[in-house]
Request: fold
Amino acid sequence: MAEGLSLKNITKRFGNFTALNNVSFDIKPGEFVTLLGPSGCGKTTLLRIIAGFLEPDEGEVWFGDQKMNDVPPHKRNTAMCFQSYALFPHKTVYENIRFGLRMRKVPASQHRALVEEAMAMVNLTGLEDRKPYELSGGQQQRVALARSVVVRPNILLFDEPLSNLDAKLREKVRVEIRDLQRKLGITAIYVTHDQSEALAISDTIISMNQGAIIQKSDPRTIYDRPVSKFIADFIGTANLVPCTVTRQQGSLFQVQSPYGMLLAEDKDFPHDSGEYYLCIRPEDVRPVLDGEPAGEDNILEGVVKNSIYMGNTLDLFARVQTEPLRASVWKDYHIEEGTRIRFAVPRSKIRILEG
Amino acid sequence: MKTARKKRKFEWGYLLLLPGLGYILFFLAGATGMMIAQSFGLFNYTAESRFSLEYWKGILNETFVDDLLYSLKIAVCASLLCICIAYPLALIIKKLPGERTILSLVKIPMFIPALVASLLILNIIDYHGILNIILVRLQIIEEPLRLRNDSWGVAALLIQAWKNIPFMLIIMYSAVEAVRRDVIDAARNLGAGRLAVFTQIIVPLTLPSALVSVILVFIRVFNDYVISKTAGPLYPNTISNLMHVTAYLYNDWPSAACIGCLMVITAVSFVSVYNYLSKKLLQNL
Reply:
C-alpha cells in the first residue's frame, strides 16, 4: 500500500551547522517526489531522517496517520536505493534480493516466487547466482532496485541512485525506475543534484538550498516559473541580470536592464516596482534575420562572440550592450562568430525574480 | 585458418625479479634442502657425514610426540583465546569515542620483544610475584600459586595471549572498519535489527579476516621458542625447544633436522587442512 508522508517543522543541526531549518511538506500516496539541490543543501540528511537513520532535533515525521519519530529504521516500511548500491558483497544476487523478505518474516515458501518476480521486473533473470562484484554498475543498480521493491515498501527512497552510471545508462534506468514506481504505485522520494534527472522523473520537485525549501512544484512550473534567482540559475541555464521594474498595467512590466528597455509579461510577480532580476532562458531567445518581422517581441541587438554547434542546438554566446546573453537556437542556423545580430524575446518569456 | 602456434620468446624482463626472488629461493630452498639432507645424515657437523635412515627411525619417540602434542595444544588454545578476546574487542573499540588512541595503546605489546614480555609477566605471576603476594596478603590463598613453568602451560598461554592479541586486533579492527556504513544501513532499512545486522552482515564480512588471523597466530605460537623456554612447563615443551636441545645439548644435528622437517610438515598440513575447511565454511555462509 502506498502511503503519504508528512514532514512537520523538521530541524537538524550538526554542531553549529544547521543542515535543515524548519522544513515541512506533504507528499501524496503514490507521488514521485524529487529533492533537488546543490551538495550540502540538506537533501540527503532529509532522506536519512525519513529512513530513520538520523533523528531530527525538532519536528515530526508522519507516514500516513502514524507518527514515526520513535520508530527505528528496521520497523519503518521504507526501502532505500543507495548511491553506492550498498549490496551485500558476500551474498549472491538472489540472496541480496531475498534478504528483506527474510528480515520481514515473509513465509519462506513465497520467497522464490517474489524474488523471481522482482528480478524479472528489472531484467535480471538468469543472474541469480552471481556475486555483486561479478556485475556491471548498471546491473548492480538493478539488483539494488529489485531488493528495494521486493519487500513492497510503503515508501521508496532513492539517494542519488544513478550518479555512478554513465550518461546513456542513466537516462535508460531513470525511465525504468519511473515505470516501476508507477506500476507498483509506491510513493517515491528521490534525491538528486542533477536537474535534468529531476525534471524527467518527478511528479513534484522540491528544490532546496541551505537547509530550506525554496520551491515545491511540478517540473514544468519549476522550470518555466521559478520563484527565485537561485532556482532559475540551478535548474537549467538562464540569463540573469539585475533590472529596475515598473508595472505598466495588469501583468505588463517595463524593465530597465543592461540589455536595454524591455517589456515583460509576468502574472506571478507581486510587486509594482523596484530593483529585481530578470531571467531569460536561452531557448526562448530567437534570432531575427533581416526583413523578418518581430511583432510584439522585445528586440535585443548584439554581437555573437562564440557560436558553438552542439548537434541538437546551436549555442550562441553574444554580447548585448555590455552584458553577455546566451541563446540556444535551432541547429540549422549558420551564424558565424562576430556577426551583428538581432534577437527576439517574447514578453511572456521574461520572468522577473527576487534576489 | 592460421595456427595459433607462436614461438615463445624468452622474456628478459623476468630477470628483474632476480634480486627479490633469488634471495628468497636461495635462502628458503637452500635452507630447506640443507635441512632435508642433514636429516639423512649428510652435512653432519658433529659426526661423520654419510647417508643413513637411522635418524628418522629414532625420531618418533615419546618425547617427540609429547612435545608435538604440547605445541599443537598451546597453539590451538592461544589462537582461540586470542580470537575470543580480539574479535569482540575490535567491535567494541569501533564504537568507543577516541578509538584511535585506544588502538595505539593496545598496540604497545607488539613493540615489546617476546623475551621481555615473558619476563615482565613472570614478575607478576611468579611464586613471589605481585599477584601471589596480593592474594596471600588478602588471605584469599594460604600458599602462593605455582603459575610459571606449570605442567599445563598456563603461564605460557597467558603470555602468548598478551603478545598476540594486539597483532590480531589490528587485523580484526581493519576488518570491522572495512564493513561499509551504507551496507549496514541497507540491512537496517530492509528490516534487520541489531542482532540480524551482526549475524547477517558483520560476522560474514569479517569472518575471513578472523580465520586468517587465527592461523597466523597459530603458526606464531606453534613455532615459539622463547616464551615456552622461560614460562612454559619443563616437560613437555615446544618442538622448537626440543630441536634446540637436540642440536646444541646432545650435539645431534641430524635428529634436530628431522624434528625441523616434521615441524614444517605438521605446520603446512595443519594450515592446508585449515584453509580447506575455512574455504568450505565461507562458501556455505
About this structure: The interface with chain A takes residues 180, 182-183, 185-193, 196, 200-201, 204-205, 285 of chain B (CB under 8 Å). The longest helix of chain B spans residues 62-95. The two ends of chain B are 48 Å apart (CA to CA).
